[in-house]
Amino acid sequence: MILDLQTPDFGIALPQVIVFGLAIALVLLDAFLDKAKHFAWLTGLSLGGYAAAMVALVGQDGENKSTFSGMFVADGLTVFFSLIILSAAVLSVMVAASYIERLEGRMPIGEFYVLLAFSVLGALLTTSAGDLIMVFVGIELSSLATYVLTAFAKRRLSSVEGALKYFLLGIFASAILVYGMAWIYGSSGTTNLDGISRHITSQIGGEDFREPSLLLGLLLLVVGLGFKMAAVPFHMWTPDAYDGAPTPVTAFMSVVPKAAAFAATVRVLVQALGPLRDDWLNLIAVLALITMAFGNIVAISQRNVKRMLAYSSIAHTGYMLVGLAAYQGGQTGFGTGAAETGDQGIPSLLYYMLAYTFMNIGAFAVVAWLQHRGAGMTLDDFSGLATTNPLAAAAMTVFMVSLMGVPPLLGFYAKYYVILAAIDADLLWLALSVVVLSAVSAFFYLRVVAVMYFNEPDVQPRATTTPLLNIGIAAMVVANIVLGLFSADLTDLAERWSDPVDVEAAVADGR
Amino acid sequence: MPWDVIIFYLIAAVCITSAVGVVVANNPVHAGVFLVICFLNIAATFVMMGAEFLAVVQVIVYTGAILVLVLFVLMLVDPDDLPEFHTARPVQRVVGLLLGAILLLEVGAAILSRTVTGARGDATAQNIAAAGGNTQALGRVLYSDYLLAFEVVSLVLLVGVIGAIVLALPERLGEQISITRRGTISLGHPRGTDAALPAGPAGETPMVDRETPSPTPEPTTAGGRTLIMVTDPDERTTVGTRP
């Protein structure tokens, strides 16, 4: 018997293939390139590679196909999450380039870009997973690269400490995740996400149904994914890891691994465990509430801006979980026209994640900008920034106000859609807590603004030029102001998240 | 009771006992040896299930390679340097035990009361035999259905290698200093500590100020040999690398 190998359809996986090629090219160039050319070449290549992958996304949009025997799926969810991840990658490179090259005793820039590319690739593969195995492998690839990036400033003890905590708790979470997957596999006999959904539906037969083994699997999966997305009470690693990592890495890891975790959550909970919807919706709603409350309240007491932003990112995880808790689509998961059932939950989650990318990386970028100029990361280092550098202070103000969710800015639209989705799903208490906790968050976001505008500057900042970082910050400011106006286009794109993909036809077709 | 069932329970009992031993053992070397016993018994269960290839991989990769490496490392480390075990506060231990017991109960309840069974795959004895045995059947599946996952796992390993290099490579020492160091005794190139870096403002993580170069250390002589006192890990790392 000859092994029957089929050629996978690389065409529909073009963005992922480009990022893979970029990662390999970076490994090789890092080894063979003249040391003097490293910075310019590798930065340019990274930016170009991610931009090319974003262009290739246009071709992937609307394809709705699967390949690699159903392991890889290119549908609306893939496209939207890939857009988020690739935007975050481009912005991270812009924020990171000069930081890695100049600060903290010059970190090896080649390895930095390589690990960044692999982390992005892992996140992309998670979003396009059609199988539990790919969900797990993608998350692991993304996380493993991020663990190393966290420890990148290895001379600073806090960086190594944060990375160690992140690593130990992360692999612990992975073990829980894979244990949950094993339970789900044991109860359904397949690892294919649609297959799981079909098998569970056939076993349930439309009745109200409590199957302990499935519920245990569901619980373990939620715990494992909760760790990865930093939801309370699985957030313990977040403040130390975010604080310890070099600032651009913090910006990166507050978005990309989180996007991967959310993509995995949507894939697993909605696509595979859609039949258990009634069980996980309550779980997610409670998780969302405590995550929002904890993140916002603890952030108040932080004097270190980076730590404050870490808790704020926990709070934003909570807002996004509200979007997930407001899921109203059918029980059979994808391809059943969630748009017809009037589901706004997942589109609002997607939109929020995109908005969060521009707000959060922006805030960390300004912290990195200050570090370039010899300042630290405490609130006092921001004092009088409006006098010494009005533009940077204005940019920080935009990001803070946007994170808070004030009308003309992107953060407002994001919160608006989430609240709307929650109200639509009869989760009035959750919608109300989003509003109340946003008001609480005003305290610590506006404190930064107040310190910048009303305090006297302590020290004159050191003069340096950071062209790429400045361009990145400017781009994010523009995105925060302008992107809200194009909300209709973005939500249209987000609403196509559940476009049907006929995996079985593709497998039978030999792709 | 048929023999294979008795043997299975024997193996399972030894496996679980040694797994508990891994957690309970105070000496990490003992824990490592317990883990070897545990893995060997898991390999035995694989054989009983007819998965000979997995059994062999379990023995060669886990017991043979990884655990021996772990034991080597443990034996090379001074026992006094190892972290203290079981130093958690009593409350933490009680809560931890309680939560663990609850999880165990949940797992037990799920096993005993499950009604849903997974769909059977096509890996029947006949199909495996038709494919030419266990190993061939696995290989076929791995390189066709699970090709993408298989390739991505290899990327995970690549990232692991790169990460290990990044984190374990001492410092990017320039050629000059490596030449200098050949003829001298370096007084422990200090690295990886905050103390070696210039302290920043209070409460802030120290940052390295590359633009104000630290003073070049004066070579001193001790016992007739030249010593270089390296105080700041940054001062030599840029020599000979990027300008």
TrEMBL record, chain B:
* GO MF terms held by the record: NADH dehydrogenase (ubiquinone) activity; oxidoreductase activity; quinone binding
Q: Does the keyword Cell membrane apply?
A: yes
GO cellular component, alphabetical, reads: plasma membrane
TM stretches of this protein: 6-25, 32-49, 55-74, 94-112, 146-169
Does the record's keyword annotation contain Lyase? no
The superkingdom of the source organism is Bacteria
Q: What is its EC number?
A: 7.1.1.-
Subcellular location, in the record's words?
Cell membrane
Alphabetized UniProt keyword annotations: Cell membrane, Membrane, NAD, Oxidoreductase, Quinone, Transmembrane, Transmembrane helix, Ubiquinone
Q: Report membrane topology.
A: Multi-pass membrane protein
Region Disordered, as annotated, extends over: 189-243
- What does it catalyze? a quinone + NADH + 5 H(+)(in) = a quinol + NAD(+) + 4 H(+)(out)
According to its UniProt entry, the function of this protein is described as: NDH-1 shuttles electrons from NADH, via FMN and iron-sulfur (Fe-S) centers, to quinones in the respiratory chain. Couples the redox reaction to proton translocation (for every two electrons transferred, four hydrogen ions are translocated across the cytoplasmic membrane), and thus conserves the redox energy in a proton gradient.
Family affiliation: Belongs to the complex I subunit 6 family.
Output the PANTHER family linked to this UniProt entry.
Answer: NADH-UBIQUINONE OXIDOREDUCTASE CHAIN 6
**Protein name as it appears in the record:** NADH-quinone oxidoreductase subunit J
Organism equals uncultured Thermomicrobiales bacterium
Provide the organism lineage as a comma list: Bacteria, Pseudomonadati, Thermomicrobiota, Thermomicrobia, Thermomicrobiales
